[in-house]
User: What shape does this take?
Amino acid sequence: MREDLLHFVWMYRKYPINKLKTNSGESIIVESTGVHNHLSGPDFFNAKVELNGQLWAGNVEIHVKSSDWYAHNHQEDSNYDNVVLHVVWDDDVSVFRKDGTQIPTLSLKKYISLELLETYQALFDSRNYRFINCEKEFNDVDDFLRNNWLDRLFVDRLEEKSVYINQLLESTNNDWEQVLFLMLLKTFGSKINKDVFVELGKTVDFSIIRKLHEKPLELESLFLGQARLLNDDHEIDAHYKSLKKEYDFLKHKYQLMQPYKAPEFFRLRPSNFPTIRLAQLSTIYSTNYNLFHLLIEQDQPNISKIFNLGTSVYWETHYNFGKTSKKSVKKISNSFLDLLMINTIIPLKFSYQRYQGNMNNESLLKIVKSIKEEDNSIVDNFRKLHVSIKDAKESQSYIQLYNKYCVKDKCLDCAVGASLMNIKV
Assistant: This one.
C-alpha cells in the first residue's frame, strides 16, 4: 500500500459515504475532506467531520500505518494538535495528541474496493520494463482531458522557469537587461557549460557591456577573458594577442574578478565550443543595442535577424585559438534558435508580462506553437506510444509530464493517471 492512494481515496471519497466508522465504533460523516496540503504539516487542512453526531473542524493526517504517527514524531509537533481524524490503512497502535487525548482513527482497509486496488496495482506492475506506467492505456484517455492537462503542464513549466528568473531579478536589482544576458548565457552554455557561463555573467556589471556596444573586439575579449580562455601567458596567434591585450586593460580598468572555473570543451561538438558560443554572443551584443526591447517587449521578435550574425572573421577559420580549420561562417543553427526561443525568450516574456500585470498567454502560445517540436529521447519515446507531437508547445508539455509525474510515479497527481482510476483531477 502507498500513501498517495490513501490520499486520493480520502480526497475523492472512494469509500461508502454512509457506512464509515472509526475503529472504536463512532459513526463518521465527512462533510468536507479539507484542502490537500503538499507541504509540511497535516495532509488535509480545514476538514469537517461529524463523529457520532458532533461536528469537528480541523485537520486530517493520513498514514499507511497508524504507528507512523510516532515514527514521524508528530506527537512532538504542535502543528498536529488540531488533527481531528487519523486516516490509515493498518491501525496497529492507538494515537494520542500532546495533551493525552486520543485521536479518532479511520482504517480504510475494509472500505476500499478490490477493483480499485487491482486497477492501481496494475498501473505500477512491471515498472522496470516500461517507459511510463500507463503506456498501454495512455491513448485510451479522452483527448479533451489529455489536451487540457497538457495545456496546464506547459504553463506549469513556464511557472517553474519563472522561479529561476525571479531569483536572477532579485540578485540584479530588477535589471531585466542583465537577466536576459544571464539567461542567454545559460542557453549558449548548453548542458555542459550553462552553470559556468552564468557565473561568468554574474562577474560582469551589465553597464560595462552597454559601454562596449559597437566595440566588437573589446566585447569579445571581455567574454573570452572572463571565461578564463585568455589566461595563457605565451602568444598563441595575432588574434589571441589582440584579445589578451584588450582584456588585460578591461580587467584592470573595471577591477574584474574571473569565475573560479573555466568552461569545458570535452564531449562537445566544435560548433558548441565555448569559444564559438561566446564569440557569437559578443557579436550579438556589439551589434544590437537594447536587446531586451527587441526580444521581449516586441510581440514578434525577428530572432534570425537578431541572432544570426556569425562571429568575427578569425572564428571563421578556427574553433579554438591557434588551430586553423576549414573556413565556415559560424552562424547559429535553426535548431539552436528554437532552443533560444523555448528556453530563454518565451520564459522571459511570460515573467515580464506577469511583472507588468499584462499577461497574454494567447500570444505566447501562438509563438511556441510556431516552433518545431524538440528532438530528444523523451519526445521519441512518447512517439513510440503513437502520440502525435506537432510543435514545441506539445513537446514542452510532454517533457514536463515525464519529468514531474511519470518518473516520480506521481500517477494519481496526474490527470491521465487519475482518469484511469476514474478520478477527476
User: Anything to note?
Assistant: The two ends are 21 Å apart (CA to CA). Strands lie at 28-32, 35-36, 44-51, 54-65, 83-90, 105-107, 318-320, 323-324.
